[in-house]
Design goal:
Elements lengths: L4 E2 L2 E2 L7 H6 L2 E6 L2 E7 L13 H16 L11 E12 L8 E12 L2 E11 L29 E14 L2
Antiparallel strand pairs: 1-2, 3-4, 4-6, 5-8, 6-7, 7-8
């Protein structure tokens, strides 16, 4: 089962998110307007060229986007509202391959009224890559919007930009 929690608490939008569970997404860090997630690229996520299917990279970025858009601990005024994608763009920069660890970092860039703008960077690193921090440090990042320090970030494979809209849950 996917590790969909941070410090033992589950983000409410992941409770019934079977796609993210199937993908094996691990939530690394969450904060208002920010999210960092990770997953291992498996064989069934590859296209006919033996590289990550674009839809898998897109879905992974979309999950980071959704986590950054919606509060992990909704307040009383958030009960009847959800934030969804109004539109997105993705640029695929390099291929990712089976066995690589993908990391997505989502950051809110702007928010006004019911609309928001988010940037999500998606990186691919080989498993067991050396730590990105100073020698001898291997602690996972708990700061959303920053790369985890327990793995090398790898190469930037995609840039995802999302435009959000807060709507009534109905």
């Amino acid at each position: 089962m996917a590790e969909l929690t941070v410090s033992g608490s589950t983000h409410p939008i992941l409770k019934d998110d079977y796609a993210s569970e199937w993908m094996g997404i691990e939530v690394v860090a969450l904060d208002e307007g920010h999210a960092t997630i990770r997953m291992n690229l498996r064989q069934e996520m590859l296209n006919g060229f033996g590289m990550a299917h674009g839809g898998m990279i897109f879905a992974f970025g979309d999950t980071a986007f959704a986590l950054a858009c919606n509060p992990a601990n909704p307040g009383p005024g958030d009960d009847g509202n959800i934030t969804v994608a109004a539109g997105v763009d993705i640029n695929f920069l390099k291929p990712a391959f089976r066995g690589q660890v993908l990391t997505a970092i989502a950051n809110r860039r702007a928010s006004t009224g019911r609309s928001g703008l988010y940037d999500i960077q998606i990186y691919a690193a080989d498993p067991g890559a050396p730590t990105a921090g100073p020698a001898g440090t291997a602690t996972a990042a708990t700061v959303p919007g920053e790369l985890p320090t327990d793995i090398a970030p790898g190469e930037l494979v995609a840039e995802f930009r999302g435009r959000s809209r807060t709507i009534s849950k109905k």
